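User: Predict the full complex structure for these chains.
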Amino acid sequence: MKKVITISREFGSGGRTIGKEVAKKLGYEYYDKEIIEKIASESGLSKSFIEENAEHAPGTNIFSYAFVGRNENGESISDYLWKAQCKVINDIAEKGNCVIVGRCADYILLDRIDCLHVFVHADMEKRIDRIINLYGETNEKPEKRIIKKDKKRKANYKYYTDRTWGMSQNYHITLDSGVIGIDKCVDVICNLAKDLK
Amino acid sequence: MKKVITISREFGSGGRTIGKEVAKKLGYEYYDKEIIEKIASESGLSKSFIEENAEHAPGTNIFSYAFVGRNENGESISDYLWKAQCKVINDIAEKGNCVIVGRCADYILLDRIDCLHVFVHADMEKRIDRIINLYGETNEKPEKRIIKKDKKRKANYKYYTDRTWGMSQNYHITLDSGVIGIDKCVDVICNLAKDLK
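Assistant: Here is the predicted structure of the two-chain assembly.
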């Protein structure tokens, strides 16, 4: 039984929904936005700052320019945030029986053998349908929203892990939720989590 | 039921074994080296030439320099070989109920909706063990053999498809056979092939 399941996902692929369902089926804790709060209390940084910066590679957004200074340990604000994020994710994993969505958890927990690392993706058309259904229309075209969001996740992942986001070798299993369907993705992940030592 | 299963794989990951087992379980035809013979009879090129060049991106090996000329249709030898390969793969898929290993079949059959596209990988240590068990020791270090082989596959895939070999978005499912195990990979693929429309 794998005690920790990390789910990385393209925006609009249904990765969060899959994560929630997997947690429900396995009776695991589900962590997504809750992690932000934990990082805030760990680091003393504000939730909004963490939310903004945990999604951006340092230097890719104008806000980070205000924080290029270093603290008394010589750490930049991004190093400091990353350290707090690693601590929070490791603490959650140590408790076990959990699903963690996003936040480079696959990389942070690389050395643990009780994890199943998952990546979920889908083609653009399916993701556009999904985000319009879930979040409604905005002034920004859905395709542009998706590309922007994924670009940030990719840059953030590259910066902190030096790996390519979405490369199959980073994960134990990757799934095309558009072709396989949300429910079947949930089943495949739950069965693997149960079957693997 | 998916009628065509393509399996791309890292060298030493057990992708061929998985492909054979999947074909056996589903009662499908299995195509791997048989494709070389079909391309030979389709193109009139020799098996050894095809074997050498189907694995190399044009220009990455010394043999291809001997064939940089173009035929009466203005095609280079690589274009000609690729066209024959596409025809053979499409013909096999058209017959249905088959497993095709390698040869960029995931890309060639991109427009068919009756396919399940799979990529299999494993970490270096597991692959080294596997190739020593299967093929024995050679003068060349196993790690070097693996890196060389994968480098060629990657370059070949990039040249013909303009996509990155191993990127999860190219496949419906990717599996780490080292962690999941060969038998369970076979089960997951067979179940998906049966369950999906």
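Residues 4-195 of chain A form a domain with the Rossmann fold fold (CATH 3.40.50.300).
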